[in-house]
Structure formats: structure tokens, C-alpha cells
Design a protein that fits this description.
Layout: H1 5-9, E1 15-22, E2 26-33, E3 50-63, E4 66-78, E5 88-90, H2 105-118, H3 121-130, H4 136-141, E6 155-164, E7 168-175, E8 180-185, H5 190-199, E9 205-208, H6 212-221, E10 226-229, H7 231-248, H8 250-260, H9 281-298, H10 303-310, H11 314-322, H12 325-334, H13 345-354, H14 361-370, H15 377-389, H16 402-410, H17 418-430, H18 432-449, H19 456-466, H20 469-480, H21 482-488, H22 496-511, H23 518-527
Parallel strand pairs: 2-4, 6-9, 9-10
Antiparallel strand pairs: 1-2, 3-4, 4-5, 6-7, 7-8
Helix pairs in contact: 2-3, 5-6, 7-16, 7-18, 7-20, 9-12, 10-11, 14-15, 17-18, 18-19, 19-20
Length: 529
């Protein structure tokens, strides 16, 4: 079937092509509307008389690499209904023109897609390449987030996301059954979420983490809704309690290794006095932050006020308030990565002691180079200078870190290797408290994985009576949120789909270099699949 030029330029649109002109950069087309008489936009009465006609310019989508300018002749009609306030009105060509707009509907759709994907400046650069006439202000003006639903979905998932991590946060609301975002809120306060719940009734189940702000909002605005604590967050909180227990009892592991270690057949590796932890940047920052937090706590400041003053997250402030300085310093020391020199430090310390500090760095570098060292000479010289100054860190015993022990405990037993099982058994024998925390953690993980919520209360009683302090504190948190946690360990609903959308939001933020306004970010979240 042979198509006319009208079918190519204006497919399915009621216009009559009158003239086509070419220039070096543009294609100019003259056309006239020829559809049936329209209805009055005020009273919806069908027009019968033509008042006049005039030509309006429309920017259409490019064709064959050239800009397409449409001179569209439209008619003005009389409205013959006496009760209507409009005396005349101009017809709009369906699929081509809109009131007050100097570009076609197709061009508007293109520009809107560019604005949603790229934003202002990047979208403007792409439009220049596509020969579309649009600046960044025009692109941003096209952004209109779709209207939110009038009613809340039956199963609502709620979680926070960071506009700027540690500073400002928003809230994403997800229809868990449909797996799509229904709305985005500009903050994570209980008042904002409660207002949304009041304006959108109908929620029956709410999947959330253990944030207290969302709990208060649900109890205030939707007390009839069933709250479900997310299982992944419960395991994460349990893991934090286990790791804190391992931190507190790290001395038990060190004492056991020292008791079982045989007497060395050679002189001690290093007889220099060690003043304590090395003055690394992380250790010093931890020490100063601890002092700042406790100074403000003693002055009566709240956690939120301290977080704003020190530019920290509230969780960080609470951790520095409730944790001993020695434990924080030990954690900061353990977080230092083991460098390429770590396996050779015992040899360097022994050689330094044997020569009373008179050995040169170049000679030591050559000796360990023969033994497999692949690092630089400068690292050896720095360690030698620390030995002479008495600030070198002692050679660490082969003690697994609290995080590694926690990973062995939290993983299913069948996924551990034989060596990991043996190391975990040594840790359990060295410290009864860690062994008790291990048993409780594995029991709770079994309750979560097999959804045995009916046994939760018995587990809480055991943890409160026999567990180390971090584990009993975790059990106390569960008791205060008992209904939601029991529902999370009984029903199939969870916040997994919500976490997926939070990760998608992070990707969108990176694509916009973190500089997008809330309006632009909300539009992209709600419009992009």
C-alpha cells in the first residue's frame, strides 16, 4: 500500500498538507486542520459557525536530520450557547496541538522523556544533538510526577533512603503486592508518614524495619493495620549484637592463645616499650569523636542535636555514647587492613632486637625480599622508624576478628568449611559467653528461616536470663516490638521488594551525581520502571 506524504508526516491526524519547503537546516511544512467541528471547552456544545482562522507555528520532531517546523492553520469557532461564558474558541488538532504550546504533542513527549532520564543540563546537551529546541528550564518545567493513588495499597512497604548519607533522608512507599513505588516523601519523620496514611486510607498490612518513627506513625494514623518487622533487618540487628559480644570478650581469645603458645626458642621479638595503640589517623579520630560526643552528652544535648552539631548519623552518636572507649579503639585498630609487610613483622622485630636497633633499613629490606616480600623499601623504613620511636604496633596474634567470628556464627552450618568449623570451635572453647551467644544466634536464625514465630517468646526469655549483655539487649528490643516481630516470623510478607527499590534509588542518584532536586528525583522514581 502506497502512503501519501500526509500519512508519513501526520499519521492518523486530521490535517491537510498544503506546502512543503526545504532549507539547509530545516523542513518547513504548511498544513490546515480539516477535522469535524470541535466542542466548546466550556459548555461542551458542538460548534456550528466559523469565526475566523489563523496560522500558528509548531515545532515537530526532527525528520531526516533536519528540524521540522509546522505552520498549522486552525479555525476559530463561535459558541452559540447563550449561557456559556466563551463567545469564541480555537480548535485543537488531536495528536498534534495543545493550548498555549508552541511544540507538537510528540515533541513534548520526547522532551519529557529526555528530562526524566537526564534532567536539565545533560538533557539540554542531548537536545542539541537531536536538533530539538529546548533549554534546561523548559525541560525541568515538563517534569510532573504522576498523581499518587487516592487510597493506600493493601500491603504497604516503607523504608528510608538517603538524599545525602548521614545528613538528610526521605521515605519510599511501595505496593508490596504489585512491586511498584506508590509515593516518595521528602523526609523520614513520623508526622509526614502519618499525614500520608491519613490522606490515603485502606492499608491493612505494613512491612517496615524497626525504625521507631514509622512505628509511631502507624500507631497514630493506622492503628488497625498489622505491622510486620522485616526478617532481614532482624538478622542484621542480631548480627550486630553478636559482633558486639565478640568485641567485649576478645581478651578471652587472646588469653587462650597466650596460654597455649609454646615458649619461643629465640629471644623475644621486641623488647621496646609500647605506649599503647599506635597513633593512626583512625584511632585518633575515634578518640576525638568519643570525647566530643560525651562532652555534649554531659551538657544535656539530645542525640539528634549532637548528630546535627557533629554532622554524624544518629546511630553513630548512639554507638559512641553507649560503647566503652577501649572497645571503640580496638574496633578502629582491627579495621586497619593488613598490609604486605604484616607477615614479615615478626622477623623484622626479632632482627631489630638482636642488633639493638643498629641494623639498616636497606639491609632488612634485602633480607625479607629474599623471603618473598614484594612491597616497597619505604614501608620497611617506616616500620623501622616506628620501632626506634617505640610507637610500632605489636605483632598481632592469630586471633579471628569479631566480624569474622560473627560471619561464621550467622552463616548456615552446612556452608562452613572444615577449617572454619575448627576455628569457631576454638573460639567457643575459649569464651563461654561467645559460645552462648552463638547458640542463641543460631536458634534465632532458625526461627527466622523457618518462620517459627510461635517460639519467639521462649527465645526472648532465655536470652534475657542467660545471654551476654548485647544479646539480652537485643531480646529486650524484640519484646518491645513483639507483635510486629512475631508477625514477621510467621507471615510470608517482607520488605525485600522495598529494599530493591531503595537500591534502584541509589542508582538513580548516582546517575544524577547526587545533585537532583526532590521533585526531579521523585519524578524519576515514580515514572521509571
Amino acid at each position: 500500500m502506497v502512503k501519501t506524504i500526509e500519512d508519513v508526516l501526520f499519521p492518523g491526524i486530521d490535517v491537510r498538507l498544503e506546502r512543503v519547503g526545504f532549507t539547509a537546516d530545516a523542513l518547513e511544512v504548511s498544513a490546515a486542520a480539516c477535522g469535524p467541528a470541535p466542542r466548546c471547552p466550556g459548555c461542551r456544545a458542538r460548534a456550528r459557525r466559523v469565526h475566523s482562522s489563523y496560522e500558528r507555528g509548531l515545532a515537530e520532531r526532527p525528520l531526516t536530520g533536519r528540524q521540522l517546523q509546522v505552520g498549522l492553520r486552525v479555525r476559530r469557532f463561535f459558541c452559540d450557547r447563550s449561557s456559556c461564558k466563551r463567545k469564541t474558541f480555537v480548535e485543537q488538532v488531536s495528536g498534534l496541538s495543545e493550548r498555549y504550546r508552541r511544540s507538537s504533542i510528540g515533541t513534548k513527549q520526547w522532551l519529557h522523556a529526555v528530562a526524566v532520564e537526564l534532567g536539565g543540563r545533560a538533557g539540554e546537551r542531548l537536545c542539541r544533538q537531536l536538533r530539538l529546541s529546548a533549554g534546561r528550564s523548559k525541560l525541568l518545567d515538563l517534569l510532573e510526577a504522576p498523581a499518587g493513588p487516592e487510597r493506600s495499597p493493601r500491603v504497604l512497604g516503607v523504608d528510608e533512603f538517603a538524599f545525602r548519607k548521614g545528613c538528610t533522608y526521605g521515605t519510599v512507599l511501595v505496593d508490596v503486592e504489585a512491586g511498584r513505588v506508590v509515593d516518595v516523601l521528602p523526609d523520614r519523620t513520623s508526622e509526614t508518614f502519618a499525614d500520608w496514611l491519613r490522606a490515603h486510607p485502606g492499608v491493612e498490612i505494613i512491612c517496615r524495619d524497626r525504625a521507631t518513627a514509622y512505628t509511631r506513625a502507624v500507631k497514630d494514623a493506622a492503628p488497625h493495620a498489622l505491622e510486620i518487622a522485616d526478617r532481614w533487618h532482624l538478622l542484621q540487628n542480631l548480627s550486630a549484637a553478636v559482633e558486639k559480644t565478640c568485641h567485649q570478650h576478645r581478651a578471652c581469645l587472646r588469653n587462650r592463645i597466650e596460654d597455649e603458645a609454646p615458649d619461643p626458642p629465640q629471644p623475644p621479638r621486641m623488647d621496646l616499650p609500647l605506649p599503647g595503640l599506635p597513633a593512626t589517623q583512625m584511632v585518633e579520630r575515634t578518640r576525638h569523636r568519643y570525647e566530643d560526643v560525651h562532652r555534649l552528652v554531659d551538657a544535656g544535648w539530645t542525640i539528634s542535636a549532637i548528630a546535627r552539631r557533629l554532622h554524624l548519623d544518629r546511630k553513630t552518636v548512639r554507638r559512641f555514647r553507649d560503647t566503652d572507649l577501649d572497645q571503640l579503639l580496638a574496633s578502629a585498630r582491627d579495621r586497619r587492613p593488613a598490609g604486605v609487610l604484616e607477615p614479615f613483622k615478626p622477623y623484622l622485630n626479632t632482627r631489630f632486637t638482636e642488633t639493638s636497633g643498629q641494623v639498616s633499613g636497606s639491609r632488612l629490606f634485602g633480607e625479607i625480599r629474599e623471603r618473598g616480600y614484594q612491597g616497597s623499601r619505604q614501608v620497611v623504613r617506616k616500620h623501622l622508624a616506628a620501632l626506634r620511636a617505640g610507637t610500632a604496633e605489636p605483632v598481632r596474634a592469630d586471633i579471628p576478628s569479631p566480624r569474622k567470628i560473627t560471619s561464621w556464627i550467622m552463616r548456615p552450618r552446612e556452608t562452613l568449611t572444615e577449617s572454619q568449623e575448627e576455628r569457631l570451635l576454638e573460639v567457643r572453647l575459649a569464651c563461654p559467653d561467645i559460645a552462648r551467644a552463638c547458640d542463641l544466634a543460631r536458634t534465632f536464625a532458625d526461627l527466622v528461616r523457618h518462620q517459627r514465630g510461635q517460639l519467639l517468646l521462649e527465645w526472648i526469655r532465655q536470652a534475657e536470663q542467660e545471654a551476654p549483655k548485647p544479646m539480652s539487649g537485643f531480646a529486650g528490643f524484640l519484646r518491645r516490638d513483639l507483635d510486629a516481630v512475631t508477625a514477621g516470623l510467621t507471615l510470608t510478607w517482607s520488605s525485600g521488594v522495598v529494599e530493591g527499590h531503595v537500591n534502584r534509588i541509589k542508582t538513580l542518584k548516582r546517575a544524577m551525581y547526587g545533585r537532583a532536586s526532590f521533585a526531579l528525583l521523585r519524578t524519576r522514581i515514580l515514572t521509571q520502571p
